[in-house]
Amino acid sequence: MMFGHVFGQLAAYAEGQLDERARARVERHLARCSECGAALTDIQAGIRLASSIAHEPMPAAVASHIRAQLRATDVAARKTAPWHLGWRIAAATVAAMVATGVYWQINRPWVQLHAAAAVPNQFEREGRALHDRVKSGAAPLAFRSNDEQALWRWLASEGAPVTSMAITRPDEQRSQFIAEGAAVHTVAGVRASVLSYRIDGRPVTLVLASSRQVPDAPPAGWWSKRVIHRDEPAGINTLTWTVGGGTYVLVSELEGAGQKACLICHTTERFSDAIMRLSKFADGQSSVAHDLHP
Amino acid sequence: MPAFQVSEQLLTACRAGDRNAFGELFDVCRDRVYAIALGISGDRSAAADVSQEVFMKLLTRLPQFDGRASFATWLYRIVLNTAIDHRRAARKSVTLPDTLADGRRMDDDYARAEQRARVGRAVQALPVKLRAPLILRHVEGLAYSEIAKVLGVSAGTVASRLSRAHARLAQELAGER
To answer: How many CB pairs under 8 A join A and B?
Structure first.
């Protein structure tokens, strides 16, 4: 009977809670609608009746009782506060552990250098061979530039794998790290990015592919960045590792384990200093761990 | 009821654990809390229980009050929710009391006291969805827009519910007009 029309607005109308426009609309409707007019009469009567609802203050005895309870509870709350604090500390600890775990998995602040104990897999073998072919010109560099960032941008534009690291070469390294060019080649059946450098005047080749596609990609290592080092009598070092979804082969003719070539990507001082301490790597030692975040 | 004002200074002191400040806050709020609890529950004993529970909640929850809503709106919500929960938990038909009659005014004539009692019973017979805005409107004197904030609905919904509540009240008490 009463739903529809302007029924929903009648209480607001009767109590002066409508703005001018809404009030005028209701009044126009009321002028021609007896049903809503009758409803308004009911509602006005209801308002009069409801206005007789008394506002009863809290009885003094009740107030006194609650006040006493609050005083007692206040003390109890203070006593139990350490529990709440304990839960908060526990939650913060768990959150910190999770954050550390995520950070650790992404950044691998420790690196472990393993002397290669097994025959190289196909990706390492072909990556190593590609170094010789780039050096001889048999595998041409499709994009030549001395601008490192331009090389990465070109690779990205080709849809080839790229690092997410920011390459910002410190001035003091610029004369040592000379980028030569980039290319996209198929390595072990996988589309791979290839970067060619001369570091301290010696040729260096970095090959990068998606670890999901690389057959028998070396494991990433659970707690650390696990780098497999293989050296050859001719002084050629091959470093192979998997991290952040990419598998890398880095071939150089540099000293030590050739770890200076890692500074192609690790350009920040903090990382490069730690990596260079890997030069303490001793022959015959199967693995060395260094903190990359000293 | 006069406008409900609680100073930020008082709230800050309460949040800091100042027991005297909380006592002051209790004094400022207690009658409103009790009146709404009584309006929703329709029973003095239940209203006392609800009031105690509300202030216990205030004691523990006040540090979480973030000021996004006004303190009054926040408190009204706590009172309404506590009273509604309490009534549900009781799982018994509320004694139809004369609680909404003004028992303090002993000099009231009998007829007026009786009328208040009948209004109280009619209010208690309303579903809580209609009773809550009615109590906030007529016990606390809140504007429709303020009721909307407390109930978390639009002002139009409040207007519609109050239209239905008033109409039902009038129909229940047709002989009282």
So the answer is: 144
User: Angle, nearest 10°, between helix axes A20-32 and A7-14?
Assistant: 120
Sign of the Cα torsion A215, A216, A221, A224 reads negative
pLDDT single digits (tens) A19-33? 999 999 999 999 988
How far is the first Cα of chain B from the last one, in angstroms, to the nearest whole number?
A: 25
Q: What is the SS3 assignment for A103-138?
A: HHHHHCCEEEEEECCCCCCHHHHHHHHHHHHHHHCC
From residue A249, give the alpha-carbon distance in Å to each of A34, A108, A261, B48, B69.
88, 18, 11, 76, 59
Structure tokens at B77: 């919500």
First to last CA, chain A: 80
- Interhelix angle for B71-90 vs B19-41, to 10°? 50
- CB contact residues (below 8 A), chain B span 69-98, against chain A: none
Residue for token digits 């009692």?
B117
Does B144 contact A12 at a Cβ distance shorter than 8 Å?
yes
CA-closest candidate to residue B33, choices A50, A52, A55, A61: A55
Distance CA A77, CA B148 (A): 33
Predicted confidence band at A109 (pLDDT cuts at 50, 70, 90)? Answer: low
- Tell me whether A21 touches chain B (CB under 8 Å): no
Q: Measured between CB atoms, does A57 come within 8 Å of chain B?
A: yes
Residue A57, min C-alpha distance to chain B (Å): 5
pLDDT (tens digit, 9 = 90+) per residue, B118-173?
888 889 899 989 999 999 999 888 999 999 999 999 989 999 999 999 999 998 88
How many CA atoms, within 13 angstroms, populate the side-chain half-sphere of residue A153? Answer: 7
B156 contacts in A (CB within 8 Å)? 8-9
pLDDT tens-digit series, residues B64-87: 887 778 888 999 999 999 998 888
How far is the CA of A15 from the CAs of A18, A94, B121, B130, B161, in angstroms?
8, 56, 23, 16, 14
Chain A nearest CA to B165, separation (Å): 8
**Nearest residue in chain A measured CA to CA from B101:** A54
pLDDT above 90: percentage of residues in chain A: 42
Window B:94-133, CB contacts with A under 8 Å: 99-104, 115-116, 119-120, 122-123
Contact A17 B39 (CB under 8 A): no
ipTM for the assembly: 0.81
Beta strand spans in B41-170 (E): none
What distance in Å separates residue B68's CA from the closest CA in chain A?
24
